[in-house]
């Protein structure tokens, strides 16, 4: 499993999908299911937080690579 | 008679007509250069032509500043100047003050050449195109910091996702500096680390958009490691960067739509996924709970209490069956007993009948008894008769018979010695006696006593 911090949202989504399918598989133990659930929920939170940063100002990049508010 | 004018008068008249014409005083003429002569005086004489006609042109030495390149035969140019009449020859010509290389022809040709070249190099190939990530968090924009394009991109992006980070590289997008500026912008944003980059500008003429047809700009777009969306001009404008970019957007607004995901939709999507996780967990918990309940039931089934309960039921059942068997048996026995009673009754009846027959036997006995009685009576009578004749009669008057121990009748005391044991026989019994003393008397003559003694002995 990849560390969430290095994950892209698409990867997180894909992983959530994978976990959901795993949970829906017959024969998974309760512990496995719970682990999937926990990880899935963590990823959902991660996704939520990743896209819901405070409202961003538009930045302008300078010749020296620094940024100003646009 | 009408007045006749001189040639110079007419030429002067026409010159004035031209001079008074507003359009001809300052006009732009597009055409292809031919018969171009750089005169030693510094003037340049040439002809502009198109498919249907020619126009004489001159650029005087004093206006040479209006020409920044070396004009050659066949160049497509746009000439700014005035159309005037040369009185000496009666010809009109275009007096050029500025000569510009014309986009359309030259640029179109250049564009087609470059397009063909890059296409042959495979730079337009789909296999080089990177997918645009669906959920980007940082959007780079290379465009002019003023104008509709940047506004459109920002507005659309923030409307779709208020949390998107936009990083703008304010580029020169028109003129000679544009290609380098755009290239620097692409590299700067690549360096900065954006998820997707929009490179473009608003609408304009082919010349205005030309920077996006420059080979080095195309190469910069092609080489960029960040997915690039090309968004130049209007929908009908097509530039080289459109072909080499990972995605072509018809307009800057459309580029923003393509680059930035819809936040609301994303959240709905995420919430749906969360629900699926919740549901999955819930379902599994319910599964497990059901299993536990089942297991509990199974365990309960195996518990001593249930066993006892089951055994109790079993016993009850057996008891019931026993009862049934017992009842049946009793019933059978009762029926058999009834049958036996019936037999007994018959038997008793038979016995009774037999007994009846026996009573008849009893009557025989009575007859027999009577017969015996009569016989006995007769016997008694005979015995009495006999008895009266018995020697025992002699004893009944206090007399006795004496005998020795050996049973021999003692007829005389002389036969007895003192100390002898003697037996005295009387009518009703015998006595043993010891002779103490013997006192003989005078001898008495014997009278037939012997026969009586013998009789008595046999009877005792």
What's the arrangement of secondary structure elements?
The complex is a heterodimer of chains A (70) and B (460).
Chain A: H1 9-24, H2 30-51, E1 59-61, E2 67-69
Antiparallel strand pairs in A: 1-2
Helix pairs in contact in A: 1-2
Chain B: H1 7-20, H2 22-25, E1 27-38, E2 44-49, E3 54-59, E4 76-86, E5 91-101, H3 103-121, E6 138-143, H4 148-160, E7 165-170, H5 178-192, E8 196-201, H6 215-223, E9 228-232, H7 240-244, E10 247-248, H8 252-259, H9 263-302, H10 304-388, H11 392-395, E11 401-404, E12 421-426, E13 429-434, H12 449-459
Parallel strand pairs in B: 3-5, 6-7, 6-8, 8-9, 9-10
Antiparallel strand pairs in B: 1-2, 1-4, 2-3, 4-5, 11-12, 12-13
Helix pairs in contact in B: 4-8, 5-6
Provide an overview of this structure:
The complex is a heterodimer of chains A (70) and B (460). Chain A is mainly alpha-helical and 70 residues long. Chain A has one domain. Chain A has two helices and two strands; from the N terminus they run ααββ. A two-stranded antiparallel ribbon of chain A has the order 1-2. Chain A starts with 8 loop residues before the first helix and ends with a strand. With 460 residues, chain B is an alpha/beta fold. Chain B has four domains: 7-101, OB fold (Dihydrolipoamide Acetyltransferase, E2P), CATH 2.40.50.140; 107-261, 3-Layer(aba) Sandwich (Rossmann fold); 270-301; 399-442 and 450-459, no CATH class. Chain B has twelve helices and 13 strands. At the A-B interface, α1, α2 and β1 of A face β7, α5 and α9 of B. β1 of chain A pairs parallel with β7 of chain B, so a sheet runs across the interface.
């Amino acid at each position: 499993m990849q560390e969430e911090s290095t994950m892209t949202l698409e990867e997180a989504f894909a992983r959530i999908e994978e976990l959901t399918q795993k949970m829906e598989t017959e024969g998974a133990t309760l512990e496995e299911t719970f682990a999937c659930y926990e990880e899935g929920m963590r990823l959902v939170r991660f996704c939520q937080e990743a896209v819901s940063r405070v409202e961003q100002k538009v930045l302008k990049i300078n010749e020296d690579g620094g940024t100003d508010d646009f | 008679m009408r007045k006749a004018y001189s040639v110079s008068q007419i030429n002067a008249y026409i010159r004035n007509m031209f001079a008074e014409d507003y359009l001809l005083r300052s006009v732009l003429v597009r055409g292809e250069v031919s018969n171009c002569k750089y005169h030693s005086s510094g003037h340049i004489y040439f002809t502009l032509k198109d498919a249907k006609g020619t126009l004489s042109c001159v650029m005087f030495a004093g206006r040479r500043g209006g020409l920044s390149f070396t004009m050659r035969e066949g160049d497509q140019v746009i000439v700014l100047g005035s159309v005037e009449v040369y009185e000496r020859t009666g010809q009109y010509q275009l007096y050029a003050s500025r000569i510009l290389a014309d986009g359309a022809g030259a640029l179109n040709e250049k564009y087609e050449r470059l397009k063909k070249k890059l296409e042959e190099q495979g730079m337009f190939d789909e296999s080089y195109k990177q997918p645009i990530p669906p959920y980007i968090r940082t959007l780079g924009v290379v465009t002019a910091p003023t104008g509709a394009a940047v506004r459109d991109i920002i507005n659309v992006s923030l409307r779709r996702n208020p949390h998107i980070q936009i990083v703008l590289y304010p580029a020169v997008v028109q003129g000679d500096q544009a290609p380098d500026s755009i290239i620097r912008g692409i590299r700067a944003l690549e360096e900065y680390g954006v998820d997707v980059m929009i490179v473009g500008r608003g609408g304009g003429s082919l010349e205005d958009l030309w920077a996006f047809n420059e080979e080095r700009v195309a190469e910069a777009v092609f080489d960029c490691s960040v997915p690039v969306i090309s968004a130049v001009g209007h929908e009908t404008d097509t530039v080289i960067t459109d072909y080499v970019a990972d995605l072509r957007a018809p307009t800057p607004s459309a580029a923003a739509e393509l680059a930035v995901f819809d936040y609301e939709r994303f959240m709905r999507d995420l919430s749906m996924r969360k629900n699926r996780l919740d549901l999955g967990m819930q379902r599994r918990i319910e599964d497990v709970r059901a299993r536990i309940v089942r297991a509990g039931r199974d365990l309960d089934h195996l518990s001593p209490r249930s066993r006892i309960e089951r055994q109790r039921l079993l016993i009850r059942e057996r008891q019931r069956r026993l009862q049934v068997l017992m009842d049946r048996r009793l019933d059978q026995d009762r029926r058999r007993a009834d049958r036996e009673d019936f037999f007994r009754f018959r038997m008793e009846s038979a016995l009774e009948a037999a007994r009846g027959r026996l009573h008849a036997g009893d009557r025989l006995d009575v007859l027999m008894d009577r017969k015996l009685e009569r016989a006995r009576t007769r016997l008694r009578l005979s015995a009495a008769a006999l008895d009266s004749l018995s020697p025992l009669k002699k004893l009944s008057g206090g007399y006795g018979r004496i005998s020795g121990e050996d049973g021999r009748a003692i007829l005389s005391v002389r036969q007895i010695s003192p100390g002898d044991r003697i037996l005295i026989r009387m009518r009703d019994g015998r006595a043993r006696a010891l002779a103490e003393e013997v006192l003989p008397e005078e001898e008495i003559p014997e009278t037939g006593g012997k026969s009586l003694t013998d009789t008595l002995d046999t009877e005792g």
